[in-house]
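Tutorial, part two.
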Amino acid sequence: GSFRISQGPGMSPQGVENSPPGSFMRLLEAFHFVGMYDLSLFDVVGVHAIGGNVVFIHGSDEQLLQHRERIDSINDVYCFGGTELAHGSNLKQIQTVANFDPDMDGFVLETPSATGCKYWIGNSTFVADYVVVLCRIFVRGEEQGFGWLRVPLWQEDEEGAKSRYPGVDVRDTGNKAGCNGIGNGCIRFDKVRLSR
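Running the prediction step on this input gives:
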């Protein structure tokens, strides 16, 4: 879209190290312009860059090929699902789990308790199309450590009407004293099925 044009060719918030010389300055100028106009929009773009960067850092070559263009152009908007209500980003306490299901060759994502919901997630209530979720990965009942899953927040029917993706529940955390356009929310997952 228009943000990509202001970035210049080959520049993305996530691809600074691979961008042509001078692109980073054009990116900073674009962020400066957006921030002068609307701080909430500035936050939306910044949170999208953080979420999209997770895909770029942790995604496979195939995933990068599949998603990079839509992330760079902001045709798909991302949010970052790391923090949880009871423990912020304390990794030892993260409750969200993803169990590998060999029958579907994918994962089943679950929030096991109210205190484990992803909380204060910017862009989640009405802006983002996807959330990248930090979770504990289990295979055959054994924990494998932490991982990131790309989770759709919406689905479309044949007529193009959007509804929440099955098993994803997003609630607005309410107005803040500052930038309310970023749409902070609380996200819970109830047996969300995700293919690899």
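The first helix runs from residue 2 to 7. In part three we will examine how such features are distributed along the chain.
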